[in-house]
Amino acid sequence: AVVSTQSTGVEQENEKELLSAMFESDILSIEETVITVIVKTVHHTLALRVLYHEQYPSLSAPIFTILDPHNQSAVNLTELEEACEAMFVEGECVLYSWILYLQDTLEGLDTKIEARLAGRDDPVTPGEEEGDVLGSEVGDLELAEALQDIQLEEKFSYEQLTEHFTYQPTGGTAGEEDEEDEIFTGEVLVERKSYFQAHVCRIHSKADVSRVLGKLLQNPKISAATHNILAYRFTDDNGKANEDYEDDGEAKAGGRLLELIQLMSVHDILVVVSRWYGGVLLGPSRFKCINNVARETIMASGLHSTEQSSGKRKKKRGK
């Protein structure tokens, strides 16, 4: 089926405006492709995270997950997600209905809790009853902190995410060229629910670094990653060596990535490793995952060879 991206974009923007008007105080964040809505009642708090794609609402529901940030609600999240899936009708925006459904469900649970509390003389201690009574007192700041490392990708494989986009997820695999920037993307590594993927490209200046990074971040999947760690090194026209790195919140990862490039004796290269956190802390092994996907992608791209990394610019700007 042919989907009009223009009409899809209009429908999505209209839906965002409706949600902003109806649930302004409940929207934790609303971005171009990702929306997080807090559904909060007296005793329960849930978060609905939604990833828009080009086939919504024309052909399929948006990618989404329902989260219990503080493990306070006595609800079956899988059943809620299945019920939301069943509510979707092709061609119709559905987020408003999902929010009302979740709100009604939580209010129904609240009613049961209040009925149980009415027959008690002793106060309920936090966590004792189904649905912690502190749930309604959790502020947006605490919710933001609790959700900051939870990504939609933890519930969906790389293939499930990318199949919703009608364009390639990055610049392509080895051999495919995106204008003057040939971006090579490696395989996805999955380690205890975290996803790692590397992207490498030949660069000769800081302007090249900014441009290539900008192209990568045009991909919603990459821009939504928990961390996009990068390192680069190149020799400029004056023969001066330049190298730097960016942790992007993953402390010490960028420095280790740069050390890898140095040990491999690779020059004129930008390496970006995207990590989607899956809710399980990996400890020091995360650095091994980051460097492994980077090394494999550099090797697969051919940018590690002495001839190609010697500073020659056979394909650049007609030189």
Structure overview:
Helix content is 34%, strand content 19%. It has helices at 5-22, 77-87, 95-118, 140-147, 158-162, 206-217, 220-223, 253-263, 285-301, and strands spanning 27-30, 34-40, 45-51, 63-67, 183-185, 189-191, 194-202, 227-235, 241-246, 269-276. Strands 5, 6, 7, 8, 9 and 10 form a 6-stranded antiparallel β-sheet that branches. The chain has a 4-stranded antiparallel β-sheet with strand order 1-2-3-4, sandwiched between helices. Strand 6 (189-191) and strand 7 form a beta hairpin. Mean pLDDT is 76; it is low at 121-142, 145-179 and 306-319.
Concise account of the structure shown:
The protein is an alpha+beta fold and 319 residues long. It has 9 helices and 10 strands.
The sequence of SSEs as H and E is HEEEEHHHHEEEHHEEHEH
Measured between the Cα atoms of the first and last residue, the distance is 45 Å
Structural class: alpha+beta
Residue stretches low in confidence (pLDDT < 50, at least 5 long) are 121-142, 145-179, 306-319
Percent of residues in helices comes to: 25-40%
Strand content: 15-25%
The helix count comes to 9
What's the overall geometry? elongated
The gyration radius over C-alpha positions equals 23 Å
Key descriptive features of the protein:
319 residues, alpha+beta, 4-stranded antiparallel β-sheet, 34% helix, 19% strand, disordered C terminus
Fold blueprint:
Elements: H1 5-22, E1 27-30, E2 34-40, E3 45-51, E4 63-67, H2 77-87, H3 95-118, H4 140-147, H5 158-162, E5 183-185, E6 189-191, E7 194-202, H6 206-217, H7 220-223, E8 227-235, E9 241-246, H8 253-263, E10 269-276, H9 285-301
Antiparallel strand pairs: 1-2, 2-3, 3-4, 5-7, 6-7, 7-10, 8-9, 8-10
